[in-house]
């Protein structure tokens, strides 16, 4: 019993030491990835926005627009671990829209990390006003949420280890282990066409979990949208590479509460305006463009 | 007990034990060295990795996570004990419907994994804040467990006391409130606290609905940070693990202390004997049919 | 009712997954738990320390953390390529073994001191005393706590669902992703878990009756 007490004391003192060393270094740990590059544009905040949307009215009353975002996708939706700031292409899209809806992108957006598996619930329950996080528009989801957009066209691709030359595309993953997110469309594409692809699948909860398993050699490839994969490849250029052969279309949209047509139109207008005035391209080059993918013209908005 | 399992070693046994000690110690050290060596090879133990703990930004994030964990634990702990008392009383009620309701409630939420309960509360009901969904899930599950613990405690109050209370003209609710429950809580305190340890650990299930508690924050931090091209997983998970172990041990230690104090204070409450404790180990005695403190729901 | 009938294969897959995870982890946890309990009462100090450290560490760590370690750190230490099933069983059984160990140890404590003393006076060694005299008698008192440990294990296996294992929690998530009313799904999942947990407690009660001897 004395032993347990000693170990208790030991653990407690570790905790105390951790707490007391709070007089630590400034700044943040980690590799410095912020090489010089194009700057993200700034957006002018519209005033006197009057849209007949209950969600927006509530947000205006609150004074904050709640945006659901991803937090673990470099160059898309990424939360800096130290400063807690969100950055990336999806984040810029959110800022553009917020500005046009009359919210200051730097002050009046309340960001919320929403993981893939709970996006529909978060939108339909009104936990977030807008969901902008690599959110593929498809018919199944349209039953639960409305989409504005698409604002970007991604495609399913494969991420492999740098030294792997065996996997060249979706035809060469037979017998390999492929990782993706539980419940995601790319994963279903592989599992539902098992006879065609013939790959074993691992389903985890977060993209970064798949990346780690890929680096560790637990899985042979990871599949999801190319935009997401390129971010990881750019983050770890020595370990990973994207195969570069897309085999599906993944149009990204902004998730909005079902039935709020006015808000959907307002968001579409905002996206259109920023595509036209060049902010979209600038934002792209300052974020996703850094991961080495060429700018492509955005897909046509669906105004239905 | 353990000391009576073997004789006081003679010269030969002493020699044998010494050899086994050395061999066993070397084997354990070997396993430890193997793990350290393999981890060092992946760069997980490099000095740069450890430095991350020195930055104020890291400490602040971990501290925020710790606060979030403790906050959920605080509410869930209080609510679950209160719910436990209510359910235990309801289950001992004279009214059949109430008894049935309490029994069904307890059985249902004890059988379903907490992870599912939390998820359903969050998705199925209109609870917007993940914290309250987590707290509610923890409360109904742990409340059900605490109810069973308290019921055992109430039943262990000697019948004579209840009869005496009735004899001096107390009402049923008075007997329950002033005679049975205080003694039940007192007698069951160690078990209640070890269930609270379970509650504390289970706050980590909040990750499923993105409640940013200690473990979630640590994972997010390590996933989004690259040092020499690798995530500082071992360092951060180790730090957070130490925090969890430390807090849980503090709680268990508190339980042991209460137990000892309860025995020392001779306030005439007989129930203290219901837990025949000589030293903490022996408190695990399962003879009286109750689950031992550690066996309780084994989570 | 439709939720169940329309998706019977999904439910069956989840049910079997939960059962198989539970059974495999239970078996390993039992063996490990008894061995560690043996370590904790053994005459050899390093083994005693090892047992104490094992129990303290595993019992006070959240299971989710153990899963994270099993999936993202263990492959670095050993070798990559272990299946999610194996890793999940490892995490579950290691975690549960610490509870089994404590239950067994408290069971050992309930065996009358005279029994061990008698065994020793007959010249039995530590291993003989433990395996022939003390453990068989401890079994009886250990059954009740063991039952709740196994039920907890069943429920804990739900966490494996988030780590690429087919089990009932995965079924529930898949179905709610498909847009079914979550409360109906929850109802059937709860029924499935009640079936498993009631079977376990029934089984242990049977064991208790069979092994129970008036002492």
From TrEMBL, chain A:
Pfam families: SBP_bac_3
One Gene Ontology term of the molecular function aspect: ligand-gated monoatomic ion channel activity
CDD domains membership: PBP2_GluB (cd13690)
Organism from which the protein derives: Streptomyces tardus
Keyword Ligase found: no
SMART domains assigned: PBPb, PBPe
Protein name: Glutamate ABC transporter substrate-binding protein
SUPFAM superfamilies recorded: Periplasmic binding protein-like II
UniProtKB/TrEMBL annotation, chain B:
Gene Ontology BP, a term: amino acid transport
Family as reported in the entry's similarity comment: Belongs to the binding-protein-dependent transport system permease family.
Subcellular location as annotated: Cell membrane
GO cellular component: ATP-binding cassette (ABC) transporter complex
Species of provenance: Streptomyces tardus
Keyword annotations from UniProtKB, A to Z: Cell membrane, Membrane, Transmembrane, Transmembrane helix, Transport
ABC transmembrane type-1 domain span: 66-255
Transmembrane segments: 18-40, 72-93, 100-122, 234-258
Protein name: Amino acid ABC transporter permease
Domain of life: Bacteria
Automatic annotation (TrEMBL), chain C:
Major localisation: membrane
Stretches assigned to the ABC transmembrane type-1 domain: 15-204
Coiled coil: none
Gene Ontology biological process terms, A to Z: amino acid transport
SUPFAM superfamilies: MetI-like
Gene Ontology CC annotation, any one: ATP-binding cassette (ABC) transporter complex
Membrane spanning residue stretches: 15-37, 49-73, 85-104, 183-207
GO molecular function terms attached to this record: transmembrane transporter activity
Subcellular location: Cell membrane
UniProt membrane topology term: Multi-pass membrane protein
The organism's place on the tree of life at top rank: Bacteria
CDD domains: TM_PBP2
Keyword set, alphabetical order: Amino-acid transport, Cell membrane, Membrane, Transmembrane, Transmembrane helix, Transport
One Pfam family hit: BPD_transp_1
Similarity remark: Belongs to the binding-protein-dependent transport system permease family. HisMQ subfamily.
Protein name: Amino acid ABC transporter permease
Organism annotation: Streptomyces tardus
Upper classification of the organism: Bacteria, Bacillati, Actinomycetota, Actinomycetes, Kitasatosporales
């Amino acid at each position: 019993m004395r032993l347990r007490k000693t170990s208790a004391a030991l653990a407690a003192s570790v905790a105390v030491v951790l707490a007391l060393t709070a007089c630590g270094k400034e700044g943040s740990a980690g590799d410095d990835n912020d090489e010089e590059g194009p700057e993200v544009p700034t957006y002018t905040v519209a005033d006197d926005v009057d849209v007949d949307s209950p969600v927006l009215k509530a947000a205006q009353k609150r004074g904050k627009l709640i945006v659901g975002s991803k937090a673990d996708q470099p160059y898309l939706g990424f939360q800096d671990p130290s400063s807690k700031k969100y950055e990336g292409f999806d984040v810029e899209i959110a800022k553009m829209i917020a500005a046009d809806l009359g919210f200051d992108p730097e002050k009046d957006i309340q960001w919320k990390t929403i993981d893939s598996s709970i996006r529909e619930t978060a939108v339909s329950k009104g936990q977030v006003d807008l969901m902008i996080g690599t959110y593929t528009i498809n018919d199944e989801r349209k039953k639960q949420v409305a989409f504005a957009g698409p604002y970007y066209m991604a495609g399913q691709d494969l991420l492999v280890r740098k030294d792997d030359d065996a996997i060249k595309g979706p035809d060469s993953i037979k017998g390999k282990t492929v990782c993706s997110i539980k419940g995601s469309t790319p994963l279903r594409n592989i599992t539902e066409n098992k006879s065609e692809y013939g790959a074993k699948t691992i389903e985890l909860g977060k993209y970064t979990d798949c990346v780690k398993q890929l680096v560790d050699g637990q899985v042979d490839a990871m599949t999801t949208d190319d935009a997401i994969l390129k971010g990881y490849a750019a983050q770890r250029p020595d370990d990973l590479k994207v195969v570069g052969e897309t085999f599906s279309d993944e149009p990204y949209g902004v998730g909005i509460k079902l039935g709020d047509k006015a808000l959907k139109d307002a968001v579409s207008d905002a996206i259109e305006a920023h595509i036209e005035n060049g902010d979209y391209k600038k934002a792209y080059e300052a974020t996703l463009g850094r991961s080495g993918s060429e700018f492509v013209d955005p897909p046509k908005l669906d105004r239905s | 007990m353990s000391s009576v399992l073997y004789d006081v070693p003679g010269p030969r046994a002493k020699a044998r034990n010494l050899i086994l000690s050395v061999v066993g110690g070397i084997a354990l050290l070997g396993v430890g060295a193997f793990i350290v060596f393999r981890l060092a090879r992946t760069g997980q133990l490099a000095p740069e990795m450890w430095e991350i703990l020195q930055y104020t930004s890291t400490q602040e994030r971990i501290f925020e996570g710790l606060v979030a964990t403790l906050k959920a634990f605080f509410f869930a702990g209080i609510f679950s004990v209160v719910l436990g008392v209510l359910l235990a009383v309801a289950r001992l009620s004279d009214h059949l419907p109430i008894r049935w309701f309490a029994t069904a409630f307890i059985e249902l939420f004890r059988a379903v994994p907490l992870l599912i309960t939390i998820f359903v509360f969050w998705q199925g009901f209109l609870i917007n804040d993940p914290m309250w969904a987590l707290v509610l899930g923890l409360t109904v599950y742990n409340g059900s467990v605490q109810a069973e613990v308290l019921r055992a405690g109430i039943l262990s109050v000697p019948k004579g006391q209840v009869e005496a209370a009735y004899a001096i003209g107390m009402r049923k609710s008075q007997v329950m409130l002033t005679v049975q429950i205080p003694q039940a809580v007192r007698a069951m305190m160690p078990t209640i606290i070890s269930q609270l340890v379970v509650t504390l650990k289970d706050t980590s299930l909040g990750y499923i609905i993105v409640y940013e508690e200690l473990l979630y924050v640590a994972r997010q931090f390590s996933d989004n940070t690259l040092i020499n091209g690798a995530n500082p997983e071992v360092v951060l998970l180790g730090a957070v693990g130490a925090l969890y172990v430390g807090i849980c041990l503090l709680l268990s230690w508190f339980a042991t202390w209460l137990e000892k104090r309860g025995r020392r204070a001779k306030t005439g409450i007989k129930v203290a004997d219901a837990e025949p404790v000589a030293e903490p180990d022996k408190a695990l005695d399962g003879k009286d049919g109750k689950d031992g403190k550690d066996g309780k729901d084994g989570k | 009712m439709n939720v169940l009938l329309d998706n019977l294969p999904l439910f069956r897959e989840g049910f079997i997954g939960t059962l198989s995870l539970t059974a495999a982890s239970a078996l390993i946890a039992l063996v490990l738990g008894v061995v560690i309990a043996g370590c904790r009462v053994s005459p050899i100090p390093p083994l005693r320390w090892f047992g104490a450290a094992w129990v303290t560490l595993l019992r006070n760590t959240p299971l989710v953390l153990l899963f994270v370690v099993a999936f993202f750190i263990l492959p670095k230490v050993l070798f990559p390529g272990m299946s999610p099933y194996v890793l999940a069983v490892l995490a579950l059984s290691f975690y549960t073994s610490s509870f089994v160990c404590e239950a067994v140890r408290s069971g050992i404590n309930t065996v009358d001191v005279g029994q061990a003393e008698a065994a020793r006076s007959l010249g039995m060694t530590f291993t003989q005393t433990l395996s022939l005299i003390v453990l068989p008698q401890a079994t009886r008192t250990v059954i009740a706590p063991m039952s709740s440990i196994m039920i907890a294990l069943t429920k804990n296996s739900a966490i494996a669902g988030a780590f690429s294992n087919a089990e009932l929690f995965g079924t529930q998530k898949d179905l709610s992703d498909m847009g079914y009313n979550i409360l109906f799904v929850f109802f059937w999942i709860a029924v499935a878990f009640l079936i498993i947990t009631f079977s376990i407690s029934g089984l242990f009660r049977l064991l208790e009756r069979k092994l129970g001897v008036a002492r």
